[in-house]
Amino acid sequence: MLSSPLPLLTVALAWALPATASPIAGPGPNSLHAAQAAFNNPFPHLVHPDGLHLAHEPTTPPPSELAGTTGAQERYDGHAVWRVNWHDMGDTAKEGILTLLETLNIDIWHMSAASIDIRVPPALTYIRKVLPSFTTYVPDVQALVDMTARDVAEDEPEGGWNVSSIDTPFHDAYHKVEAVYAFGDALKAAFPDIVEEYDIGTTAEGRTIRAWRAHLKAADGEPEHEELEFVIQAGQHAREWVAPSASVYFLHSLVLDATADPNSHAANLLRHFTFTIVPIVNPDGFEYSHDHSRMWRKNRQDVGGLFCKGLDLNSNWGHKFKAGRTACSDSYAGREPFESLETKAMAYYLINGTITDTPPRDHKVRAFVDLHSYGQLFMFPYAYSCADFPPDAENLMEAGLGVAKAMRQAQNGEGYQTGQACDLTFRSTGEAIDYVYGTGDTRWSYSAELRDTGTYGFMLPASLIRPTGDEVNAGLRYLAQFIYETDIDKP
Length: 491
Ligand SMILES: *[C@@H]1O[C@H](CO)[C@@H](O)[C@H](O)[C@H]1NC(C)=O
Ligand SMILES: *[C@@H]1O[C@H](CO)[C@@H](O)[C@H](O)[C@H]1NC(C)=O
Ligand SMILES: [Zn+2]
Fold this sequence. Notes:
Inactive metallocarboxypeptidase ECM14, Alpha-Beta Plaits, metal-binding, 2 domains, binds zinc ion, 12 strands, disulfide bond, disordered N terminus, four-stranded antiparallel beta sheet, signal, binds 2-acetamido-2-deoxy-beta-D-glucopyranose, secreted, alpha/beta
């Protein structure tokens, strides 16, 4: 179709490649040279000297940023998602592809050792020439965006959410930050002896990161295990909408089951554990993904870039942190660990307790699960490298396999893969699970990629919130039981 792709490539690269002198200057001869090199050599190993910070500032704002300033919704007409099969490539060749994708600002949806899913705008389809074989997974991204836009509930109902049944319409739709928080408050109001609310911290745009904790008083003669805290966080990545929804579903269902029957498994778990749910770790990004740019992943902090905002929270934690190179990248890690207010606040909470209203933590968090989408994976540390094998790997694997089985056996459950994060994903430093395990010394540390495996990706239909929630429910209850039997009540 393209007889001479090079001019197009040069145009596309004009705002993607480094302006060597200053971020404001247009692309110099060097970047044109690099563009040609990138085209002539599929894996050019474009060098990013670490000192050249924010070198990839575009000379015009990328669409995702324009959307915010004009109040418009960014559109993805003609964008497709390709699953590129890179199974046979070595790590160096993979790195070469990643560098090229980053240079072109191509959005990576999912990465595993076998394949990588990328969102390709119509102007960049020429990259097919330098990619190994691929299949089109999502032919029309905008159609999916339109679909989940209709899946967002407008407002909370008159008189607030009725939380007395899991059948509440809340779980049939996606919601914005305030509605999720209103639902948490309704839970607290309905179950004041069980559910508490805490503020974890404040974001760059002034939103509060809120947490809900649930615990039941021990029955007579039973030991109190309030120190067994199980923290579930969701929504580090803004566009992964099903994760916050599933975390709220889990909390709701646990509290309902426990209050319906004091002898239930749920009640038992809540007597022994305190479950802390932080449904939206990144409320600024989450809101931005609703209002301006459905594909938004990062937070909305000013990082000193000319046009591009935001840090990738799950690259910004302080264990084996690796500084980011370009502010416009969707996986921009920042200059320093905990540069993002959200990871800083969460780390403080996990290690020390809340800043505001709890006494300092005198015990470690026992378990931590970080919810994401998509891919159907349940993973344990480390993410940054497979050479670093956690001393608890066998236990983590054994519990993880049980979790995956419990998820599959849930009503309408799907298959989930279990393993070390470095094995199941590719190249990820500064992740939450690594920090919580490696620095925080929490032995049971996992991250989950919830549904699906790529058909809808981030735009999972709201009708699948419940089945996903049921899986999370089954998996996390299994995990808590496993931890209890392993750590406390050894058989
Ligand atoms: C809440 O829903 C339950 C059943 O789902 C119903 O019995 C109850 O009356 C409702 N409460 C209010 C205040 O509407
Ligand atoms: C925990 O509190 C100590 C003392 O205030 C502080 O130095 C440390 O940075 C905190 N840890 C985290 C992870 O924020
Ligand atoms: Zn994620």
